[in-house]
Hints:
Mean pLDDT: 94
Distance between the termini: 57 Å
Helix content: 40-55%
Strand content: 5-15%
Strand order of the largest sheet: 4-3-2-1-5-6-7
Radius of gyration: 20 Å
Low-confidence stretches: none
Shape: globular
Order of helices and strands: EHEHEHEHEHEHEHEHHHHEEEHHHHHH
Amino acid sequence: MEKRHIAILGSTGSIGRQALDVIRQHRDLFEVELLTANNSTDLLIQQAIEFDANAVVICNEGRYGEVAAALQPHYIKVFAGMQSVCDLVAGDNIDIVLTSMVGFSGLSSTVAAVKAGKTIALANKETLVAAGEIVMKLAEEHHARILPVDSEHSAIFQCLMGSAGAAIEKIHLTASGGPFRTWTREDIAKATPAQALNHPNWSMGSKITIDSATMMNKGLEIIEARWLFGTEGSRINVVVHPESIIHSMVEYADGSVIAQMGHPDMREAIQFAFSYPFRLTLANRKLDFAQIGGLSFFAPDMKKFPALGLAYEALEKGGNMACIMNAANEAAVAAYLREEIGFYDITDIVAECMNGAEFVASPDLETIFRTNEAAFEKATELIAERRKSF
Length: 390
């Protein structure tokens, strides 16, 4: 395969760091063109120098001088602000854009890359949750290819490669169950952020780890799968699989099920998106089935994890409802991490916002941005009310 030139949006986060490790193993095949970060200047500078990036963007404009001064001797171009990210991802020097910025903030840059016809290695699930129909239509219009980086959606994508075009009967999204799988609802209600951040299988950023604890992350993945694979919500099933060896499965009309397996390691999905349709070697842990011994599966407990029901509800409602859900969740998770509200306050706030926000059946992109802002503000008000009695 020819060398591919890559932009990593959110290079200092968990996904971005693992993506750079993939590139580190294949410097002859991948070239870093653009790196972006919000505040982590020291790491951004270190990454830019190591990979001789063509350009970097520090999204926090107040830290531009620090980054520019450090990289000027290395002849690396430095820019600031989200508009710079949107402008640079459209450059002719970029083949693949890894969108790994956290939350709704990744939407505008992903849309810019899609409009430029880039290959998108999508690690920002909130983009399709908030604006899935819009983004997928833009991708078709501009001939942009969207390749999933979430381990579950990469697994589905890989399972479909062996389907010979057969229609999907059902998608089985696997979930680890998070740190509270065996806890009672009463104990979960008292869980601290430190306990919620103690994920048994995966090492991730704080926001996605809390989402895993509430199972909202799996709810977001249900909606993402609907748009990536054109499958209605009724055909997307969640199954708890504590070992996290099977990353997801696809079931066909004859009852056959194809699964994709591997140890919990995001580098596998990242590398496959970078190298598709080719497979490359990767210095990672390989499966030893005799050592694994057995795999287990359970139905999710919707009473202990109401976020799943909210996601199915948002998907069924359509319009801007998933955007409302996502914005409220972002605000509530941030408040929980600040220890301002309790664990179940997160989903209670999301549900209240979904019930009270303005519903738009056929939103455009401008409406999605307004919805996100309004839902976030409403959630912030609800957080302030609950903070007083917490």
